[in-house]
């Protein structure tokens, strides 16, 4: 499942606008968007990691057992 991420984002361009916003509200909105994106990426990452480990016969052992 591909995750669509914007390419070549320049943060200073993202931050420049003609109006003033409350930073606490903007930060809360940004954190919610980041959390949703990380949830999507996490699923893709673990699917690929699980396949890689299985293909290469790598076993993860916890606490030496």
Topology:
Layout: H1 11-15, H2 23-55
The SSE string, one letter per element, is HH
* Ends apart, CA distance between termini: 34 Å
Total count of helical runs of at least 4 residues: 2
Number of strands: 0
Question: Using only CA atoms, what is the Rg?
Answer: 19 Å
Percent range of helical residues? 55-70%
What low-confidence regions span 5 or more consecutive residues with pLDDT below 50?
A: none
- Beta fraction of the residues? under 5%
Characterize the biggest β-sheet: none
Summed over residues and divided by their number, the pLDDT gives a mean of 80
Count the domains. 1
* Broad structural category: mainly alpha
Coarse morphology:
elongated
Account of the 3D structure:
This protein is mostly helical and 65 residues long. The protein contains two helices and no strands. It has helices at 11-15, 23-55. The mean pLDDT is 80.
């Amino acid at each position: 499942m591909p995750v669509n991420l914007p390419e070549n984002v320049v943060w200073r361009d993202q931050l420049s606008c003609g109006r003033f916003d409350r930073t606490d509200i903007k930060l809360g909105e940004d954190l919610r968007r980041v959390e949703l994106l990380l949830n999507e990426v996490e699923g893709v990452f673990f699917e690929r990691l699980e396949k890689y480990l299985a293909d290469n016969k790598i076993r993860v052992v916890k606490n030496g057992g």
